[in-house]
Design goal:
- This protein is of the alpha+beta class.
- It has 2 domains: about 160 residues, Immunoglobulin-like, CATH 2.60.40; about 130 residues, Glutaredoxin.
- Helix content is about 15%, strand content about 35%.
- It has 7 helices and 18 strands.
- Strands 2-3-8-6-5-9-10 form a 7-stranded antiparallel β-sheet, with no helix packed on it.
- Strand 15 and strand 16 form a beta hairpin.
- The radius of gyration is 19 Å and the shape is globular.
Amino acid sequence: MRPRLLPVLVPTVALLATSCGSGGPSGDGEPTGSGGRMVAVVASADLYANAPQRFAVGLPFADGRLVSFGSVGVRFSYTGTAEQSIAPQPGPEATAAYVPTPGTPDGRGSGPIVAQPSEARGVYEARGVTFDAAGIWQVEVAADVQGAGTQTARASFSVAAAPSLPAPGQPALKTENLTIRSKGAPLGAIDSRADLNGKIPDPELHRWTIARAIEEHRPALVVFATPVYCVSRFCGPVTDLVDELAMRYDDRAVFIHVEIWRDFQDQVINRAAADWLLRNDDLTEPWLYLIGADGTILDRWGSLFAEGEVAEALRRLPPMRP
């Protein structure tokens, strides 16, 4: 069976209709709302119980426009398990702030508006959300949208008892990912953008293996993404942003890009990407991991991330030895 590459979030309504990712319309995150109403699409994958984590949600309208900028309120309720539903039990509440796709406006100082995808694309993220039980949860989003009034939308999603993918607090996998020194590897297996121009971009992201960084006690910021073949369309901008961070914080960590595909045409996934992200023939992308000097995963981000938040995590690391 060929593996399926799944987006964490596909940021247009037309693509949302075909998404198979966790929390997407075709999964247990079926959104509610129709016509001119706002829809909630869960943009987080691998949620699990009893640990604070980020929760992201996209807010499209059925006509393809997206709610963007500012912040929205989210509240959660527990509705039982897949086998037995119960009356909704109130859970945590939070404020979710807008996180733009890198290279698009952040709308700083502006409240939620309805924008075309060409004008703004992003998700709303709440931090430090803890789900106290595994099972099926529901999020209710409330947004005061300029020109559209108060909009509400709900979506259901699954929370597991434990993470499926490597998670904060766990030891990082000592992976021998491909680098510019890898012999016999197709250039596109090192970075899919080489399939377009025959040259590996961002060489500073392709010099280190995760295994070497751990062995030499170097912190590492690792992005798993396929810039050319990405389903979510976030991989290219996210990889570019990691490259920008590498230029500014090369004294705090080594920076690594792990390409998803070894051979896209034959649907062969790179072993490093499979070891970290492939579960039950499904693989979500993109993911960003921060690994400490002792080899422990310090943090992870799925889909989109706030540049300032990642930069602050890097600044908290002590300077590396030469």
